[in-house]
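Homework help thread (please don't just give me the answer)

Our assignment gives two proteins as sequence + structure token strings and asks us to describe the second one. The first is just a warm-up. Here they are:
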Amino acid sequence: MQLTQLRLTPVLALAVLVGCASGPLHRQGETGDGQANAAARDAMMAACKAANDDPILAPIKGKLLPIGSSGPETFEMLSNLAYATEEERPAIKVYAERLMGCQAGILENARQHLTPMHVALLEGSFSAANALLAQLHNSQMTYGEVNQARARLRNESDAAIARWNSGHHH
């Protein structure tokens, strides 16, 4: 199996920036190890999405995309001028920690099945997205500012990965 034949899809690129892939790296004709990998990946994504059901995240429900969602943000999310409250800070911390756990799983999968450049693009995107959550937690940015920046980051990462894929077919 050649690494260079595996491509990160734009759907995955969008999804991973939020922490989990809702449209995982399915390739046509996956058999054997590919099917086992797809099953493991799907289980990881289901666990990431299940983290949203924790009541501790209730204070920020509807203010940030759910873990595992690839967007888009609602108008309310993009236009929210509020800073995080004392009640919301613990929820943002848990959200970020769970997101980072999902990101670690995605990166582990990417290291096994994608090119080093795809891994580097993912790592850069995750790092930038996590920094935004830290700024939200510390009341340095509003929810709207963070959501707008996360949307821009997803679009830029999507474009970078698409450029990389189109220039490196084999």
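The one we have to describe:
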Amino acid sequence: MRIRPLVLMLPLAVLLGCGVPPALAQDATYQWSFTAQKGDVSKFRTYMKLTGRQADDSGDIAIAIRSRSSHTVRDVTAEGQVVYDQADESSEASFNGEKVAPAKSEPAKPITISVEKNGIWAKRDNPNVDPDNSRHEKAILVIQSSPAPDRPVKVGDAWKNEVANPLVRGRKVTLTSTLVGVEKVFGVDALKVTTLVDIPTAGDAVDKEIIKAQHTYYLDAKTHQLLRAVWVIRDPMLPFPANKLVAKVVVNRVLPGVDEAVYAESEKLADAK
């Protein structure tokens, strides 16, 4: 089985928070938005583990992909929307434990992504896919959104954002986010936020036709810079048929001075039940 690097889930935007750095106290409130400067460049590394059953139920599927990418901010609009290019720098994959040779093709072109100040993805243009065969990518707009609160929040507070369902015209889905707490990531205090969303893939979708995503991301509590993101996605859409799929993804910002063992340890989050 030949596998091209999957575009199911790729690293988040290179976004820096704005506003006054919060005080880290038990009853502290936090509020942030996302912005960047034109020309900003950041690098990320991604580990994805995809498990499930083959479409005819004849065997298991276990795909692992490690990749690195750079994000370059192309523009920031007057309204604060950040437009950036995501370029893959390296990728390696395995299928059921066996290393997969890269598909012989031209290098992938950068993917252009537009993100609103509130962390909602507005647009994603992937020139590497056939526009007539790209439905499996549309849900990424919702899955990778990182909704910021529209008001100051405390640990334990939740907020909701309603966005268009990119798979069902005229329907909407609700992202429910919660500020879970403050944890150490790469040795700094990080805001831990979890976002849940169900995305029906059809107007009358049954349970197995609903993408169920949990997205946990960590922001530097002082700068609001993204440090890490973790997804668990059940029944994702893929460019090939399969059943009982679960994708687990860990994305880390590449920072100077962070030991390789720290990144390797974080990948264990993709092995958690």
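TA reply:
I won't write it for you, but here's a hint about the kind of observation we're looking for: Residues 260-266 form the longest helix (7 residues).
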